[in-house]
Amino acid sequence: MGGLSEGDDVLARWSDGLLYLGNVKRVDGVKQCCLVRFEDNSEFWVLRKDIHSFSAGIEGVCCVCDAPPLKEPLVNCHKCRHGFHPQCHVPTIELEADCSSWICRQCVFAVATKRGGAMKRGRFARLMQIMKLRLPYQLSELDWDPQHLTNQQQCYCYCAGPGEWNLKMLQCGGCGQWFHEACMQCLTKPLLYGDRFYQFECSVCTKGPETIERLPMSWVDLAHLVLYHLSLCCKRKYFDFDHEILSFANENWESLLLGTLSDTPRQDRCKNLLDALNSHKDRFVSGKEIKKKKCLFGLQVRAPPPLTSDLSPFIMDPPLGISPKRSPLSALCQKGAVDSGPRKSKRHVKEVQPSPQGAGANPVDLMSFCRVGGTNRFGLKRTEDELNGLVENITLQMGNKKMFMLVILEWYGGPLGKPVAVHIIILRWGGGGWVG
Ligand SMILES: [Zn+2]
Ligand SMILES: [Zn+2]
Ligand SMILES: [Zn+2]
Ligand SMILES: [Zn+2]
User: Fold this and answer.
1) At the top level of CATH, which class does the domain 1-55 belong to?
2) To the nearest 10°, the Cα dihedral for 103, 105, 108, 113?
3) Ligand 1 centre distance from Cα of residue 60 (Å)
4) Which of 179, 220, 232, 406 qualifies as a cystine partner to 276, CB 3.0-4.6 A?
5) Which Pfam families does the record associate with it (predicted)?
6) Which residue, among 225, 390, 400, 402, has the nearest Cα to 320 in the 3D structure?
7) pLDDT digit string (tens) for 307-366?
8) Cβ neighbours of residue 271 closer than 8 Å, sequence gap 6 or more
9) From ligand 2's centre to the CA of 110, what distance in Å?
10) Where are the domains of the chain?
């Protein structure tokens, strides 16, 4: 498949936009993906588009279109040695340029993308800025979910890699595409999980450097953001106010870029945050309400803090996103509280493994995923009214298809906390509409 075979050493792009070293274990030519074993021995199915091979390919043909040179000779990348027709590369290779030291888009991104934000200075930063003026895919051809958070092709950012909108990505206010923290050159501080308090415009839309502006945040937004970030990092629901919530806010105070709140003296932050947590029962649950310690707080719904511009009050975080995929090498790169990466989800291998029956849903798997989401909800011992008509929106990944599951829990008078009817509707986005 596309010049890849078992045993090849490759670079695979992860949902954080970074490339990781791996070895091809299996090749699925039909679904255009490979099972890749990474350096930490984890194995994941990766789409062909996200795999870059080290081998120089077939001598004398273009690595994009497999055709021999036309009038002009192929231009070879100085780093990876792959040959290109000038017009097959995005952007088109300028023939006046010094072709002996020319570097291809993939190699520029491999060097310039960084956790916390891409390089801003030096030759690779400048080359990256030029590459970013054009996307290597047709944005208008992507099939988005109704909330414009995920697309069927799993194609995001300048790098065309996979992505998770709630895990350190920003949406461009111009074109609506989502971009990786690692591929952005405009950030002054690393992103927190779920932090969308930025007005961002991509290089394609500005036709130049990206623009970014911090949006104002309230104490409620800050409390929500800290709880969301901590819940993804630690995979827990409740956090101690003094030792975790307040101390995280204090330790990262400068990086949080809080605008008008940033001048708040240390001794006043405690009261403001605590007031926010106690006065917004729609967003936060305190330990007091669940007969735990009153200094514990958690989120009612594990969703990033909403923006005032959002149409719906909460964009539901799919329950499967509870454990963001740890990148294969993130353990080696963890540093500081902001950067501490979440643990790897063991379920992930199963999620993306193409099912033997093809992209069709496996009912047993769907049911078990559903129960995972349900248990969390029921564990809260919701009242009858709260449970009535409760709707969960779950995104499942099957092969390269995203499945959407709408779970409607209904209350028919069973014992408190135990709904007796669970309705599950499985939908798939296809052909411009929802397929049941
Ligand atoms: Zn070509
Ligand atoms: Zn190259
Ligand atoms: Zn990217
Ligand atoms: Zn844009």
Assistant:
1) mainly beta
2) 180
3) 11
4) 220
5) PHD, Tudor_2
6) 402
7) 877 655 455 554 443 344 455 544 333 333 333 333 333 223 222 333 333 333 322 222
8) none
9) 9
10) 1-55, 103-215, 219-321, 351-435
